[in-house]
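User: Please predict the structure of the protein below. I'd like the answer in structure-token form so I can feed it into my own downstream comparison script.

Assistant: Understood. Taking the following sequence of 124 residues as input:
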Amino acid sequence: MFGQPLRFLTVGGATFVIYFSLQYTIERIGAGPYLALSIAYAIAITYHYLMNRIYTFENKLSRSDIPTSLVKYAVVNVANYVLTLGFVGFVRSFGLDIKVGMVIAIIFTSGTTFLIFRHWVFKL
């Protein structure tokens, strides 16, 4: 009963570490915060897709089904990315660090993302 949600949270936690570590590192080597966020997001969601497909949802898609799931996954993540930029812009308007907006976006999108993945993206 709690297997998929627990695996989703585990993958999400690992993705969080990758995302924040990359964003921090890329920004420290000279990229602006939005460029660093964008690069980190792209790398982290690649990991996120693979781990959710293989581990969380134990998805046994045939090779012909993978492009469809990737498109669905991309749709969800583009929406999440736009929300992330909105939250980041909002918190930065108050002088807060970009990471505050990143955390708020993750909290806001996690539950709905799990349900969308389970019932649409990785549904067999």
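That's the full token string. Residues 66-92 form the longest helix (27 residues).
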